[in-house]
Structure formats: C-alpha cells, structure tokens
Amino acid sequence: MPREQMNEQQVAAYLNLDLREVVKLASRGQIPCRKVAGKFLFFKAQVEHWVEERIHTLGRKDLAGIERGVAAHHGLETSAELVGPLIPAGGVAAPLDARTRDATIRALVDLADRAGLVYAREHLHAEILRREELCSTAIMPGVALPHPRHPLPYDIAASFVVVGLTSSGIPYGAEDGSLTRLFFLVCCKDERTHLHVLARLAQMLHPAGAIDALLGAEDADALRRVVCRQEAAVMA
What is the mean pLDDT of the chain? Predict the structure, then answer.
C-alpha cells in the first residue's frame, strides 16, 4: 500500500531504531513526517525512500538491523539467500558493453529482457533513467544500484537483479565525480522486496575489499560467484 501510514513505534520497529532516535529525527525534520495531535505520522513509502537515499552512509550493523526490521514487518526471511536467486540465467554481463549512463541502463534492461523478465522494455528503461535524473544511484565508489523510483509490477514478470561490469569506468553521476564500473539493476514487483534487496546488497558491498573483489572478476561466471560468496558471508 503506497499510502500506508505508520506511527513512531512502527517506524522504530520497521527500521530497527530506538524510538527516541525516531522522535529526535522527526522533531528535527530529518525524516519525512507530519505532526497530528502531538504525534508524528509517517507514510511508509516516504520512509523507504528516505532510507534508500542514505543507505550508503549506514554501517553494516545498521543495515542488518534495517533488513531484520523490514523482514519482520513483511513476514520475510532474513536467513535465506535473496540476491543470488533473483539473478536469472544470463543475468550477469562482464564486460557490459556500455560507455554512457543511458547505454548502461539500456544494456542492463536488455539482459533482463533476454531472460524473459520484462514486459515493457522501453517504459522500464525510461523509469530507471527518470530515477537517475532525480538523484544518481552511484552511491558507492565504483558501484551503482540503478532501479525505478517505484515498483513497476506490470512492466516485469518477476522481481530480479541483473549485474553488469564495464571494462572501464563511465560517468554515472557519482557525487564525488568518480567513474562507475559495477551495476546492480534492481527491479522488484513490490516495495517490501525492493528495500530488502537494497539493504542486503549494501551489506554485501560494505566489508573492506568487497567492491575490489567484484571489480576484479574476469568474466560473468566469476562475477556471479563473487556475488554469491559475498551474500553467503553476510548471512554467516
């Protein structure tokens, strides 16, 4: 439900935060909310976008906490593989043949399309590009997590992640001006899966050396193995 409302206690549980921290953030205007009858009221979709925009600044403990909170709220499992099973056969390209932001998004969508997961390729491409124009998803050194702003259940057959590694870095809009080589396209049929996947991916990319290991993959099979190994390490 895109307009699902939450109170302070529910947001604290959803993000696995102390209630006092949620109230402090709300009081300072640092999390989207409004005040009604002396209490803060939150829209779940706005809270999720707020987390998404800050996910690269969070530590691994905070990321794990968010994943647990989101999973508990939606009745999802945190001890099972998530990212690996969402990558279809043929869903990894190394190298990915792209030299611009638009070409990268199109190449990633094409990967998913060839796997039979896309119903409306042009619309999906446009929505992902529109999300990038709002704020780049190149939020980690060398890595971007492109995705549409909202789930597009009628554009895709099932939730998926496809992965691409370009031979050299491309300008993808990173805040520090650095180039990007590794791309995880995340397309989910619902918000709960979307935030769960982002939290899991951020944990996988957080440990020292994790990104370098992915960037060093020699081909698609090696890249898939590194992704699966890093997810297993998160779950250990």
Answer: 91
